[in-house]
């Protein structure tokens, strides 16, 4: 009787074929998930790049408006845009008569280009365009009119990041 029970009892566990099928399915799922996760990381970096570009460009425009409103005094031969990005974070005395003793700041800190080398300081992570340079051939100069990424990568939208 004990002999019949031993043969009737089924061994628990997986066969080698079942394990190989499970491993193949897991490998297939991983090969699909990896490109999706890489695309998600790329998309997040692009969102951060877009936010940082807007933040810096808004600060550059605010600095320019402050010069036009005579809150910042510049000489006639000087540009109404900052000389560098660090100027946007410095406390600049407000030159308007009703605001004596007050200061202007346009950024708390300079956002960094998320595609730049993390060892590069944030203000040096951007390519700069001066007011005098052409839009299709941006060049650095005596002032900072605009910024763009130094990255040669192409965005998910097909446009090179340095053209954003």
Automatic annotation (TrEMBL):
NCBIfam families: IV_pilin_GFxxxE (TIGR02532)
Name assigned to this protein: Prepilin-type N-terminal cleavage/methylation domain-containing protein
Organism ancestry: Bacteria, Pseudomonadati, Pseudomonadota, Betaproteobacteria, Burkholderiales
